Amino acid sequence: METVYIFGAILVFTAIAICWTLLRNRTRTRQMSRAAESLGFSFEPDGAAWTARGLLDTPLFAFASIGVHNPISNVTSGAIGGHAVTLCDYSYWTGSTASTRFDYSQTVACFPLKRELPAFTLLPRDHPVDEHAAAFALKAAGVLAGAGKTMVGSSDRWEAVQRMISEAQAQGIEFASHPKFSERYKLVGPDRESVKHLFSAAPIEYFERQDRAAVTVECSGKWLAVYRRKTRVKPEDVPAFLNQAAELLKLLGL
């Protein structure tokens, strides 16, 4: 009888957790829809169609490209500072069990670029705990990418995952004249000299002034994505976040 009670309690707890998650997500969708309306932007609650519109070129969206249930949602589209922009919530997880699962959810500002830039990723140096999670995620992703490439040949979806792994493992580009920047951020890209040329004193000094909630920036060449890792932007903070992201484009000469 005691086992029945325990099993029943687990079912009730699970049901409550599911209902709470659904309610929270629906509330956020309503709030983000109102935020989009106040900006004069369009809004789509389901962003599945955006996986075919170029976003998958950026390492952040690599997991969305391999068919795992990692939703893009609350998609807001418009223009800021003269730049077309798409804002979305993106969630994914890595790992395989409760003890080794790492969940990530963030709001991402995505800009289709008017001119192509060298591909790069700029991210804050991780806390040791995050580094452990990232190391595990990369190991799991590497196994997955290897298996997937065997099954589907040279599909772009697996190449996206492999690019994410390569960039995370690459040695960062450092600037001797700005040791604070090199200490706080990791900058990587396949064409190191072109990336280094792109980051003049202005963007470097901007990032040096940022607090510990600094943004991550990823550029695929044709798209640029800006987000704070594991952080969803509050609906009332969307305008400020978009203005900050647009400022970064200006600093990069766009």
Note poorly predicted spans: 127-154
The order of strands across the largest sheet is: 1-2-3-4-8-7-5-6
Specify the number of helices.
Answer: 7
Question: How far is the N terminus from the C terminus?
Answer: 68 Å
Q: Output mean pLDDT.
A: 77
Strand percentage lies at 15-25%
Percent helix, as a range, is 40-55%
Structure class: alpha+beta
Shape: globular
Computed CA radius of gyration, to the nearest angstrom = 20 Å
The SSE string, one letter per element, is: HEEEEEHHHEHHEEH
Q: Could you state the oligomeric state of the chains shown?
A: single chain
Total count of strands: 8
Please outline the major beta sheet: 8 strands, antiparallel
Domain count: the total is: 1
Write the layout of secondary structure elements.
Elements: H1 2-39, E1 42-46, E2 72-80, E3 83-94, E4 102-112, E5 120-124, H2 128-152, H3 156-169, H4 179-184, E6 185-188, H5 192-198, H6 201-208, E7 216-219, E8 223-227, H7 238-251
Antiparallel strand pairs: 1-2, 2-3, 3-4, 4-8, 5-6, 5-7, 7-8
Helix pairs in contact: 2-3
